[in-house]
Amino acid sequence: MVVLNGNSLTLQLAYQVLFQKETITASPEALAKVICSREAVESIVAEKRIVYGITTGFGKFSDVLIDSSDVNDLQTNLILSHACGIGEPFPEIVSRAMLLLRANALLKGYSGVRPIVIERLIQLVNTGIHPVVPQQGSLGASGDLAPLSHLAMALMGEGEVFYQGERVLAMQALAAEGIPPLTLEAKEGLALINGTQAMTAMGVVTYLEAESLAYQSEAIAAITMEGLQGIIDAFDEDIQRVRGYKQQMDVAERMKRWLHDSKLTTKQGELRVQDAYSLRCIPQVHGASWQVLDYVKEKLEIEMNAATDNPLIFEGGKVISGGNFHGQPIAFAMDFLKLGVAELANISERRIERLVNPQLNDLPPFLSPQPGLQSGAMIMQYAAASLVSENKTLAHPASVDSIPSSANQEDHVSMGTIASRHAYQIVGNARNVLAIEIICAMQAAEYRGRGKMASKTAVLMEKAREIVEPIEKDRIFAKDIERMAAWLQVTNFLPFLEIEASVNL
């Protein structure tokens, strides 16, 4: 069980909750801070003090005073009116991440909610009730208002949820688990939606997928190196050391471990003096993508433990309106992540071309078992090229855009949720490109001689061959790509780590 306290949630812990279905609970110490914060809200209402979002309207309506008898209705109206999400829902796992992150943020004790609100969020995670949250409609400032309103509705028994593999009414799922719907009180609606948990949840899931894909890309590139009889000298420690980037050095070291004892790789001058960039520059290019991942990881782990509400309530009853809900840090991080992952796909597609193009290798043209009569992997390269081209359009930064809202009260926004959604799409496209590369690389390596492969790549080949068979005749390769891409999902990442760690140099 993962204990939340608002300060120590990591991507590793998030992985356990999201992908391994670990349950969560709240730290008693954190709940004590939540109670103190709630007492401050109740004093504000009782004293009829003018505080944004508690005794006033929202956005441009911040100057409209609300009678103390209406403060609860104000919160319900806020959620219902702001639930303007559009389009297909976020993946269910992202909805689960939103619940996790929202609970953790409220446990910091600066939002003024009752403990029951946090307990309900935790219950939804632990019972697998995941709100249906449309993906479109957030500007990424004033928080992810529209998406998080759909999340909050589930607590109230409104809207729809994913539950036990089905999409059902929220009230139906709550009743099945014996959870009564929640009636929001002062400040609670605003506290639930005024934050960056939609973009950050999407970012967390995207990062975890991207990180596993980055490791997999190295293993797959190692098989390509063998299929093309690549020159191992390019991974020499001295080359990496004099450049100085740790991530580059790490990639080169992992590549050497994957290819240790291979009889298919060559030394410079044996077959050629040097390889093309897509092979020779694997440490430099993949290493740069790892630099991006490291930056994104740092920003996500800060944001996962951030108070992004407005106003915030501090010790002594001090209440301050600010802008922690603004998603600019995550918008930049997600746009950066798009570049890093898109490049992993770009260089992978160039390796695919080297595997299938008879003008660039001495393999059968397009890895075909009967060149001419059978096309082999010809159109797989087309598909990879299409995906990387699509990634180039998705990689356009969302964060450079802004559009004013709420009658110009909210006149600069981040578009961070758009950035995170596009990053997720790029990861999906990149996974399909890498699926194509491993299918082609295995075919080439087998042509060279499976018995000559490195110990580790041979084990990986054995496992991958359970997913996709050798190309002995033309078939519907779309099915192969789909199966291989599914195998490359983060939940199947462990075999790669086990193989990578299996030989000590």
From TrEMBL:
InterPro entries, per the entry: Aromatic_Lyase (IPR001106), Fumarase/histidase_N (IPR024083), HutH (IPR005921), L-Aspartase-like (IPR008948), Phe/His_NH3-lyase_AS (IPR022313)
Enzyme Commission code(s) on record: 4.3.1.3
Crosslink (5-imidazolinone (Ala-Gly)) position: A141-G143
Spans traversing the lipid bilayer: none
Regions annotated as coiled coil: none
Pathway(s) served: Amino-acid degradation; L-histidine degradation into L-glutamate; N-formimidoyl-L-glutamate from L-histidine: step 1/3
Domain of life: Bacteria
Keywords of the record: Cytoplasm, Histidine metabolism, Lyase
Record keyword Nucleus present: no
Catalytic activity: L-histidine = trans-urocanate + NH4(+)
SUPFAM superfamilies, per database record: L-aspartase-like
Residues found modified as 2,3-didehydroalanine (Ser): S142
CDD domains from the UniProt entry: PAL-HAL
Location of the protein in the cell: Cytoplasm
Main localization of the protein described in the UniProt heading: cytoplasm
Entry comment on modification after translation: Contains an active site 4-methylidene-imidazol-5-one (MIO), which is formed autocatalytically by cyclization and dehydration of residues Ala-Ser-Gly.
Root EC class: lyase
Single GO MF descriptor: histidine ammonia-lyase activity
Record-stated family: Belongs to the PAL/histidase family.
Stated name of the protein: Histidine ammonia-lyase
